[in-house]
């Protein structure tokens, strides 16, 4: 799989994408992640990528030309399954979308900044719009890093013990059961007895019950679905 991220602030993406599971997946060759600085196609000596909005609203708007040229450069090399704009008014990202995107070959994530992007980009170049929640951030970089992380950890081989990703929250439409590690007793705060029983069947039953109970309490809507 290949993920291309287009941004005016590549530095914002450096750290989140160069550690832990994502970094390991890249090093194992499971995914290629390329971050592109939009300024490459900026206009004039100052490599301008944004301008004032028509209509006079406050805030700078990313211009269509640099975005168009950047996307054209990428599209000349390969076909993309999705060209995604990170946007607060897009479809709300969830585990289902992460699963779906993890099966794609090539995707582009476009990060907006400032006031947003020229709407013609959304009309003519973008195939999908994804939001990370109903709140507004300063740029699409953190959302793009978030989406990338959620996708990459699902690629087979990214997590060494694959069942680990499969038993995560939401994968079976339920929250996961509580987890514990040593010591079994800390200050009298005990790990549930059943987990120390060594009986996989009992443990599994307990985990299933816990998953349903926690989902009922914390995300009842998941059960309705
Ligand atoms: N004026 C826009 C917000 C711009 S925020 C509006 O009212 O909708 C600047 C950029 O941050 C956006 O272009 C988008 O790429 C990104 N962004 C902000 N909040 C986001 C969210 N919740 N999900 C995904 N991207 C977001």
What structural keywords apply?
single chain; 225 residues; alpha/beta; Alpha/beta knot; Trp Operon Repressor, Chain A; 5-stranded parallel beta sheet; 3-stranded mixed beta sheet; 36% helix; 20% strand; binds S-adenosyl-L-homocysteine
Notes on the structure:
It is a single chain. By secondary structure, the chain is α/β, with parallel strands linked by helices. The chain folds into two domains: 2-152, Alpha/beta knot (3-Layer(aba) Sandwich), CATH 3.40.1280.10; 172-224, tRNA(m1g37)methyltransferase, domain 2 (Trp Operon Repressor, Chain A). The protein is built from nine helices and ten strands. A five-stranded parallel β-sheet has the order 2-1-6-5-8. Strands 3-4-7 form a three-stranded mixed β-sheet. Strand 3 (50-52) and strand 4 form a beta hairpin. The model has no long low-confidence stretch (mean pLDDT 96). The structure holds S-adenosyl-L-homocysteine (SAH). Residues 86-89, 111-113, 115-117, 131-133, 135-137, 139-140, 143 line the site of S-adenosyl-L-homocysteine.
């Amino acid at each position: 799989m290949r993920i291309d991220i287009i941004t005016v602030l590549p530095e914002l993406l450096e750290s989140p994408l160069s550690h832990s599971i994502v970094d390991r997946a890249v090093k194992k060759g499971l995914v290629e992640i390329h971050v592109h600085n939009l300024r490459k196609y900026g206009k004039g000596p100052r490599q301008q990528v944004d301008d004032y909005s028509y209509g006079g609203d406050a805030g700078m708007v990313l211009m269509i030309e640099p975005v168009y040229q950047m996307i054209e450069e990428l599209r000349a090399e390969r076909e993309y399954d999705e060209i995604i704009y990170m946007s607060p008014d897009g479809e709300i990202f969830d585990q289902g979308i992460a699963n779906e995107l993890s099966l794609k070959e090539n995707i582009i994530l476009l990060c907006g900044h400032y006031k947003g992007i020229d709407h013609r980009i959304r009309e003519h170049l973008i195939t999908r719009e994804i939001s990370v929640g109903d709140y507004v951030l300063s740029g699409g970089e953190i959302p793009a890093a978030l989406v990338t992380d959620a996708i990459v950890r699902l690629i087979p081989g990214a997590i060494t013990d694959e069942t680990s990703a499969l038993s995560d929250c939401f994968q079976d439409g339920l929250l996961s059961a509580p987890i514990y590690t040593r010591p079994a007793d800390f200050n009298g705060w005990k790990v549930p007895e059943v987990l120390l029983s060594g009986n996989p069947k009992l443990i599994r039953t307990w985990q299933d019950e816990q998953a349903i109970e926690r989902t009922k309490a914390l995300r009842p809507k998941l059960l309705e679905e």
